[in-house]
Amino acid sequence: MTTYVLLKWAHIVAMVYWLGGEWGVFQTSYHVTNPRLSLEERRRHLETAYRIDILARTGIVLLFPLGFHMGAVAYNAHPWGDDIPLVWVIMLSWLALTWAAFFKRETDLGIRLTRIDESLRYVFIPLLLGVSLWSLLGDGPLTVTWYAAKVFIYSLLLIIGLILRFVMRHWTIIFREIAIQGPTPALEGQLAREISIARMLAYVYWIGIGTVAMFGVAKAPW
């Protein structure tokens, strides 16, 4: 197998885990936010949601270095081929942080690690948006138009993903409060409002993921 074939295979697998994982969390959320279920049962569904979501998070993080690597070696889509090892080190470190937050998810440390993970996106997302939009307008460093479009949509999806990360982090905090003081209309109302917004965003998310995949497959010449 060539390096390109292995990268392409891994990229497809990461995309599948991203899309499939988000669907699994979406379905599980109905039970997490169902006030008719016992707190213990809702916690079990929350645990299931986190175990599914970590695969989606892994796919999201790995998509960037895989796409960056292929963009350099297969498409000559950007001028940073010499930085491939550095990008892999940075993104694998980010992935390690993501998994550490997952393993510590029920603790204060886990919440802090999740917030660090989120804060990295405040830098990463604007950077991707800026470079891809600049390139789509004709003067940026991404020299292949479909590649720039794919990066642009990917960065927009990361914004939605960040909002969904907020929702899941709030689940942990709210369930702690429910365990202490019992279910209250205020806490249940917050869960209901947040999940309502998250579910609407999820539909946009899936369409966007499918669009990113389309660009990667079609490689439109424009």
Question: Can you tell me about this structure?
Answer:
It is a single chain. This protein is mostly helical. The protein has one domain (3-218). Helices cover 83% and strands 0% of the residues. It is elongated and about 55 Å long.
| Count of structural domains | 1
Number of strands: 0
Q: Measured on Cα atoms, how large is the radius of gyration?
A: 19 Å
Shape: elongated
N-to-C series of helices and strands = HHHHHH
Number of helices: 6
Instruction: Please state the structural category.
Output: mainly alpha
Arithmetic mean pLDDT: 89
Task: Give a short summary of the structure.
The chain has helices at 3-32, 39-73, 84-103, 108-136, 145-181, 185-218.
Features:
222 residues; single chain; mainly alpha; 83% helix; 6 helices
How is this fold's topology laid out?
Elements: H1 3-32, H2 39-73, H3 84-103, H4 108-136, H5 145-181, H6 185-218
Helix pairs in contact: 1-2, 1-6, 2-3, 2-5, 3-4, 4-5, 5-6
